[in-house]
Write a structure and sequence with these properties.
The strands form 5 sheets. The chain has an 8-stranded mixed beta sheet, with helices on both faces. A 4-stranded antiparallel beta sheet has the order 12-14-10-15. It contains 9 helices and 18 strands. The protein is an alpha+beta fold. The protein starts with 27 loop residues before the first strand and ends with a helix.
């Protein structure tokens, strides 16, 4: 395994151990020989002393891990090299991680005691081609870290190795390096099935947000993201000539009826305060202009921020589609795939997370954040234990543009890595206090 060399003047090994400690970080060298200066630690001096010392000596390591993962992205449930890297870096400081049965995903405990809180990061990349021009751009065709999971993984690695060097901890911190967040069903379900939450009383996580400046953490009590379900509706008709629609069942007209009417029906059957929205993404039917096709398909996503509404949507969609199509005589089959539940941060866990942010960065690090219609499988963990999720600011600030996630041009301000490490460490300490 080759990892970017974060200390070119100091001998080390591929597992991240360094033979001779240094007091100040040096420039970071990529595999291509490109030199990049280390970034500022926006929380430097806020303690505790062992965290300040660790970050001062290892800031370039955290950058190197992130850049290596960024350059070598792996798609969902294929994060084998990333898993190997995480395991080797944890073992290098005496920890005992274990890998999920599928070969991707890592769980590891730090500390001792009955009480246990969890910190989670996701590891998978998106099936996109990067277009950033970074010297450490993706080297894998058709895969790129355009959602910040490379940063999430490096941040949790930094928090893990800093916590491993703490004089003592008031309990156990469980590290969850999760595969397959970007697909449904997501890797959170694999983690839960493997026992990653056994004995855990609370769980916390961060996600990159290009709308927040680096140095800010956005928190919110209640729904932060939405449930996200997939709908695939297949229609059938005997077919026929478009000159005689009355002698058949007009399938394209039926598709149009569902496309325009189902979102409207749902808006009258569901509490508008729930943030429920149906958007179609694909429709396919027929080829000839003068022929009524025999089959067609309609696909879309249905999202809601309300957990109770989420549990009622599947039967409501099925009955509504049946009512809309009955007068037209078109047959249908509905494949309704429940995705992820909404991420709902409870008040106490959010207060602990905010306390962690304030300890790590001061009051100026705290920010509010809006509820999003995006899905995040961190919600599955919150079906089992309490917890809170927050948004990590990665925007450099003006005049830099805000490059949204899931785009080939997404980049992040790497000062956010140190912010993330400090926030996770302080949040774990606050939750165990």
């Amino acid at each position: 395994m080759t990892v970017l060399d974060s200390r070119p003047d100091v001998p080390g090994d591929p597992e991240g151990r360094v033979a001779n400690p240094i007091e100040e970080p040096t420039a970071l060298i990529t595999e291509a020989g490109v030199s990049m200066a280390p970034v500022d630690d926006l929380g430097a001096g806020r303690g505790p002393f062992w965290l300040d010392d660790w970050l001062r000596a290892n800031v370039t390591d955290v950058l190197a891990w992130r850049r290596h993962i960024h350059a070598h992205p792996e798609l969902s449930r294929h994060e084998f090299a990333t898993t190997e890297l995480v395991v080797s870096l944890l073992r290098a400081v005496g920890l005992k991680p274990w890998v999920l049965p599928g070969g991707t995903g890592v769980v590891c405990d730090i500390g001792q005691g009955e009480r246990c809180v969890a910190l989670r990061a996701d590891m998978d990349a998106l099936p996109l081609t990067e277009d950033t021009g970074l010297p450490y751009s993706s080297t894998t065709e058709g895969a790129a870290h355009m959602c910040g999971h490379d940063a999430h993984t490096a941040i949790l690695l930094g928090a893990a190795r800093a916590l491993a060097g703490a004089p003592e901890l008031p309990g156990r911190v469980r590290l969850i390096f999760q595969p397959a967040e970007e697909v449904m069903p997501g890797g959170a379900l694999d983690m839960i099935a493997a026992g990653a939450l056994d004995g855990v009383e609370r769980i916390f996580g961060l996600h990159c947000d290009p709308r927040l400046e680096a140095g800010k953490i956005g928190t919110r009590v209640g729904a932060l993201t939405s449930a996200a379900d997939l709908i695939e509706l297949r229609l059938t008709s005997p077919g026929g000539h478009t000159s005689r629609p009355h002698l058949t069942a007009d399938l394209v007209y039926a598709l149009g009826t569902v496309i325009t009417s189902l979102p409207s029906v749902l808006s009258r059957r569901v509490d508008p305060r729930s943030g429920t929205v149906l958007v179609w993404g694909a429709v396919h039917a027929g080829q000839a202009a003068n022929a009524v096709p025999q089959d067609g398909v309609l696909r879309g996503t249905l999202r809601t921020a309300d957990h109770e509404v989420w549990t009622s949507l599947e039967p409501l969609v099925a009955s509504s589609v049946e009512s809309l199509l009955a007068p037209i005589g078109v047959g249908f089959s509905l494949d309704y795939r429940r995705g992820v539940p909404p991420v709902v941060s409870d008040p106490e866990s959010t207060a602990l997370l905010r306390a962690g942010v304030e300890a790590a960065l001061g009051e100026q690090g705290l920010a509010g954040t809006e509820q999003s219609s995006g899905g995040e499988d961190f919600g599955w963990y919150l079906e089992h234990v309490q917890g809170a999720f927050a948004r990590l600011g990665v925007w450099p600030g003006p005049p830099a543009a805000q490059a949204d996630i899931h785009r080939p041009t997404f980049t992040l301000d790497e000062r956010a890595l140190m912010v993330g490490v400090r926030t996770l460490v302080h949040t774990a300490l606050a939750a165990l206090a």
